[in-house]
Structures are given as structure tokens and as C-alpha cells.
Amino acid sequence: RARALLEGHGMGASIDKPIRQLSKGMAQTVQLFGTIIHQPRLIVLDEPFSGLDAINQEKLEALIREQARQGVTVLFSTHVIAHAERLCERIAIVAGGRIRFDGTPGEARDQLRSQVRLRTRVSDGAWRRALPADTVAQDGAWLFALPDEGIEPLLRALLDGQAGIESLSIERPGLHDAFVAIAGAAAAQQMQAEPTPEEDA
Questions:
Q1: pTM (2 decimals)?
Q2: What is the mean pLDDT of each run of 10 residues along the chain (201 residues)?
Q3: SS (H, E, C) the chain
Q4: How many C-beta atoms surround the C-beta of residue 184 within 10 A?
């Protein structure tokens, strides 16, 4: 089984080498092979992508996906949100030593509203009153959260007001955005809960 794993991942030539002679990526891969050689049903990995280059990260991701396809439960910790977004069916966000969110990546993203990016040819006019209160100007565009009633009423106001729509995109928050919001809210709560020096005294 070890030989099949090594040869199947392009490491057949390294089969007789001491592990200290392997590159970091190859050595880390061999360590993972040692974890799965007995075909466990549960694999727990702590920061498995740490220190790997992009090619070895892709190889490790493929190996994790293959284990999952075989019905193995893979639990791993990571500070690289992109890995969690690509690989995980469920995530837990830990901040301040407590689980602040437990669910799917989609459910985490759904905690934030989609963002609208609007560019117009005309910079001012009556249509400006239709922009939501949270609108900010940035790099020649208007940015705001997608209104609860949707984008259609605003589109009508823009068209009627001849704003000259150059581009309009609705961007769903990524898992990174959700992590920052959830972990940030937890940090803010923790700071509010901590006693001031006067209260300590």
C-alpha cells in the first residue's frame, strides 16, 4: 500500500531515500501517507498546508478530496480561508477560544449581505437620492449593500434619472469576508465583556 501511494503520487523514485533527504513538500506528503496508510475512517490534520508551495498544496488538496470521495471524514485546521472554501462541506469558525459559527460555507457567507458596485457616467442628479444610506464612493464607483427589496427599484430610478449606467455588479461575500465579520464581532464582544482597570480595582 505504501509503494502504491508513493508511485501513484510521482514519488516512486524516492522510495528508498531517508525522509531527511526529501524536500519539505515531499516529506510532508510522506507524513500524510503515514496517516492514511491503514485506511482510517477519520483523519485529523493540523495546518496541513503550512510551508507548502502552490504545486504541493494542489497535490495535498487532491489527496484530501480523494479520501473524502472514499467516505473518509477529514477534519483539518487552517488559517488559509481559501482551502476551507474549496475543500470543506462544513466549517467551524473559532475566535477567542470558542466556536462562533458552525455550518456550511454558504451559510457563513449568507450572514453578510451581497455588495453592489455601480459605475455611472453622470456623477450627480436626482437619482442620487435613490442610493441606499450606506453608499460610499470608491475608485470612481458607488458601493453599497444589496437593498432588502432587491436591485430593481434602484435600477428604475437610475434609468429614469438618466444616470448612464456603465456597470453594475452584485458581489456575494466570500468566506474570507464572513470569517473577518464573525471573528471581528466575537473580538468586539470579548473586549466589551472585559472589565476596565477601574472595575478590576
A1: 0.68
A2: 84 81 82 89 92 85 92 93 93 90 93 91 88 90 91 92 92 90 77 58 46
A3: CHHHHHHHCCCHHHCCCCHHHCCHHHHHHHHHHHHHCCCCCEEEEECCCCCCCHHHHHHHHHHHHHHHHCCCEEEEECCCHHHHHHHCCCEEEEECCEEEEEECHHHHHCCCCCEEEEEECCCCCHHHHHCCCCCEEECCEEEEECCCCCCHHHHHHHHHCCCCEEEEEEECCCHHHHHHHHHHHHHHHHHHHCCCHHHHC
A4: 11
